[in-house]
Write a structure and sequence with these properties.
This protein folds into 2 domains: 56 residues, no CATH class; 115 residues, Efflux pump adaptor protein, beta barrel domain (Elongation Factor Tu (Ef-tu), domain 3). 26% of the residues lie in helices and 28% in strands. The protein contains 4 helices and 7 strands, in the order αααβββββαββ. The chain has a 7-stranded antiparallel β-sheet with strand order 4-3-7-1-2-6-5. Strand 3 and strand 4 form a beta hairpin. The longest helix has 23 residues. It is rod-shaped and about 120 Å long.
Length: 188
């Protein structure tokens, strides 16, 4: 009888057996997403991070668009560009400018030759530079003036009085700042 009791009795303690069984159990989480879909999500996240970093570091030019007039105030041809007074601090000789005669005329790139050091009144702009009295280049308030020498491809008499579309690059900004709601990231 004693032998029967020993056979039923386990060799190991019950606590040790539970610990052993718990160690052998493998934690298996349920699979909600298959491995190819998960890989696709990781690739998408990587592309999103790559695109965000490119948008953070890449800078795009900021242009100010205005009009100018081809004039001959002192006998030689000039392109007079009239800008709002608050743009005077951004202008300097040598600044690159994209120009186009009229709406569909020739386009070219040139640099600003001179900038008037102070804001001029409409009457002073008209008298000094010979711009038309509001017909082609409406000057209705004090403005900053930039001057560009005559390009070689323009005829002195043929284009006098013509309107020129002007795009001046006044700076650059992070590409990410162009997204709605993220313009505050410009200074960061």
């Amino acid at each position: 009888m004693e032998k029967a009791q020993r056979a039923q009795r386990a060799i190991f303690r019950e606590k040790a057996l539970r610990h052993y069984i718990r160690g052998n159990e493998e934690t298996v989480l349920p699979r909600f997403i298959s491995p190819p879909v998960m890989l696709s999500f990781w690739c998408l996240l990587g592309l999103l991070l790559l695109g965000s970093s490119i948008a953070w570091f890449y800078r795009v030019p900021v242009y100010f668009t205005t009009v100018g007039e081809v004039t001959m105030p002192t006998g030689h041809m000039l392109i007079v560009i009239v800008l709002p007074a608050d743009q005077l601090s951004r202008l300097h000789p040598g600044l690159s400018v994209q120009l186009q005669l009229g709406q569909k005329g020739p386009q070219w790139q040139q640099t600003i030759t001179a900038v008037e050091p102070r804001v001029l009144s409409p009457a002073e702009i008209r008298s000094r530079f010979g711009v038309d009295h509001g017909a082609t280049l409406p000057v209705q308030q004090p403005a900053a003036v930039a001057l560009i020498e005559k390009p070689a491809h323009l005829s002195d008499t043929l284009y006098a009085g013509s309107i020129v579309q002007v795009r001046i690059q006044v700076g650059s900004r992070r590409m990410i700042a162009l997204l709605p709601g993220l313009s505050g990231l410009e200074g960061v």
